[in-house]
Design brief:
The protein has three helices and five strands, in the order E-H-E-E-H-H-E-E. With about 80 residues, it is of the alpha+beta class. The strands form two sheets. It has a three-stranded antiparallel sheet, with no helix packed on it. The chain has a two-stranded antiparallel sheet with strand order 4-5. About 10% of the residues are buried. The model has no long low-confidence stretch (mean pLDDT about 80).
Length: about 80
């Protein structure tokens, strides 16, 4: 498993649509919510879709005293 750095919103950790995880690279941010398709995410990361998804993520610091995280599946990406 490859680790990458990302960011997410913390105002409501109850679901993917509220946390809105983003992968950061040396040159861009890859939004996983209201963002590109799974194929485009893989292209930006220079990987195949199968190499990228599913994406497991976890916050490094607690949010409201809890460790939050989740899984982003191929079908979740680009959702409105």
């Amino acid at each position: 498993m490859e680790r990458v750095v990302g960011i997410f919103l913390t105002f409501d950790p109850s679901g993917f649509d509220y946390t809105q995880p983003v992968i950061t690279t040396g040159s861009t941010h890859v939004r996983l919510w209201h963002g590109p398709s799974a194929e485009e995410v893989a292209r930006i990361l220079k990987r195949s879709v199968e190499q990228v998804f599913p994406i497991e993520w976890q916050a490094r610091v607690p949010v409201d005293g809890e460790t939050i995280g989740g899984v982003v599946n191929r079908t979740d990406v680009g959702a409105a």
